Amino acid sequence: MFRMKSVVVPAFAALLVAAGCSHVGQDEFDTSMADLRSELSAQNSAIEENQQAIFELSNMTEEMRGEIASLRDEFQVAVEQLKDGIRFATPVHFDYDRADIRPEDVPLLERFASVINEHYPNSVVTVEGFADPSGSRAYNEQLSQQRAENVASFLKTEAGLMVTEIKSVGYGENRLVTEGAAGPGAYGLENRRVAFVVEQAGPIEVMEEEESEENAEETVATGA
User: Fold this and answer.
1) Are 198 and 119 in contact, with CB atoms under 8 Å apart?
2) Sequential DSSP letters for 3-54
3) Beta-bridge partners for 160
4) Which helix or strand (DSSP H or E) is residue 167 part of?
5) 166: Cβ–Cβ under 8 A, 6 or more apart, which residues?
C-alpha cells in the first residue's frame, strides 16, 4: 500500500502542476489520468491477490498442523524436526524374523500417504527399516532392508503415495528403542519397526516442539 502511494500520488501531483501550464492540452491530461487510474487498479488487484495468497497459506498451515496432530493422537506417531525435513517415528512393527506388513498397520500407512500427498507432494520420502538384536548383524541389516523395501512398495503401489522419490534403507539393529530387547516372540517388537524421513526443497516447518530421536522413539514404544 505504501509503495502505491509513493508512485501514484507524486505522479498525480505532477499532473496537476502540468495541467496549469498552457502548453498541456486537455486530451493529454485526460490520457495521463486514465493511465494513472489503470495503474492504480492494477496495484489494487495485486494487493488483493497477495492478501488472498496469505490467507490461503495460513489456512494450509493450520490444516497441516491439524493433520500432523491427528497422526500423533490417533496413531501415536512421534514427529521430529530435522535440519532439512521431518522424521515420523511410527508404530509400524514387524513380527519376529518377518518382513511382511501386518494388517493392523495398514490404516496408519494409508493415512501417512494421504498426509504426505496433501502437504508434501514434491518431497523425497525415505523409509528406514530396523531389526532387533537377535541374529547376526549382517542378517539384521538384510532383514531391516527388506522391511523398508516392503513398506516403500506398499506406500507406492497400495497406499497411492505420489512424491518425487521413495527410498528405502536398512539400519539393522542400530538405534534400538529398547536396548537388548529381542525375539523370538513378541518381546522386542518395538525394535522391529520402520520410520519415515520426509525431505523437500526449502525448510519444512512443523508447529510442534522439537524432541530428540530417542525420546520420540520411546514415546512410540510406550504408546504415550
Assistant:
1) no
2) HHHHHHHHHHHHHHHHHTSTTS-HHHHHHHHHHHHHHHHHHHHHHHHHHHHH
3) none
4) strand 165-170
5) 124, 125, 126, 127, 152, 155, 156
More confident residue, 80 or 144: 144
Q: Do residues 173 and 191 make contact, with C-beta atoms less than 8 angstroms apart?
A: yes
C-alpha cell at 34: 486514465
Q: Which residues contact 190 (CB under 8 A, 6 or more apart)?
A: 93, 177, 178, 181, 217, 220, 221
pLDDT at 5 over 80: no
Residue 158 to residue 109: CA distance in whole angstroms: 10
Contacts of 154 (CB under 8 A, 6+ apart): 101, 109
Cell of 68: 500432523
Question: Which residue is listed with cell 490417533?
Answer: 74
Q: Are 200 and 83 in contact (CB under 8 A)?
A: no
Which pLDDT band holds residue 149 (cuts at 50, 70, 90)? Answer: very high
The three cell numbers of residue 188 are: 522386542
pLDDT band of residue 201 (cuts 50, 70, 90) is very low
The mean per-residue pLDDT over the stretch 74-96 comes to 90
Query: Which residues does 196 contact at the CB level (< 8 Å), separation at least 6?
Result: 87, 88, 90, 112, 125, 126, 127, 128
